[in-house]
Amino acid sequence: MRSFTQPFASRLTVETPETVRLKGTGSYVRWAKERVLLTCEHVACEQPIHYRFNGSDAVYAHPGPWTMDRHPLDVACVPMTDRQWEATSHQAEIIPRDKFAARHSLSEPAELLFFRGYAGENSAYGFGIHQANGTGYCSQEKAGTGDDQIFELFWDPQEGQITNGTMAEAASSMRFNNPEGFSGSLVWNTRYLEKTSIGQEWSPDDAVVTGLLRRWDQKTKTLLVWRVEHLSAWLTARF
Question: 79 and 146 share a domain?
């Protein structure tokens, strides 16, 4: 899932004469005939937003205007033209519409959910270079929480574990105490348990988007995620 989702995600930053600051995470999505950069409103509200394609060092400022709705929706997007998409050589990819689930629904409560994002605590600016390490996280829905608009993912800084296969250098510098910056990440239902429980072989391509990550609730130690059926309806009304 780490490799699968990497081409879809982008760090979103704001710049001043003195510094570059990570603001959140965005995803490239195909909706109807539009190529869209999608995130949360509280990320995109501070403009101009700068984005970056996977596999490229070039950074671009989106001229706007963005389409957005404030809390309680907290969602924003902007179409990207062919000229913007082809401005540089890169390995970024677009999530097609059919990778969005019809609704947030898990085959069993323990199903594995995944997202890729850019945490501010794992980014730094110095000597004219902004370094931000994207990280992938696997979690589960917290039973008995959420409502008809959101579901909740476990996120307890004391319980995070670095997975096998993570390079020692990356593991030594990775912090996971503050998820600020993950806002705007898309959450995927991996469907791993759904597939393997019936004896089928699983692959990352089985995963589907199941929500938009909004924010961290420190009291409940959960990440609040907007259900995909509402996100899809919002996009469909605009494109």
Answer: no
The Cα 211–Cα 101 span in angstroms is: 9
Nearest Cα neighbor of 80 from 53, 105, 40 is 53
CATH code at position 185? 2.40.10
Q: What is the largest CA-CA distance in the chain?
A: 56
57-109 tens-digit pLDDT: 899 998 778 999 999 999 999 999 999 999 999 999 999 999 999 999 999 99
Residue-number span of the structural domain to which 166 is assigned: 100-229
Q: Give yes or no: residues 127 and 213 share one domain.
A: yes
Nearest alpha carbon to residue 47 among 61, 58, 36: 61
Order of strands across the sheet with 186-189?
A: 129-139, 113-126, 186-189, 208-217, 222-227, 150-154
pTM of the model: 0.90
Read off the tokens for 30.
């195909």
Sheet holding 34-39, edge to edge: 59-61, 50-52, 9-15, 20-31, 34-39, 75-79, 67-69
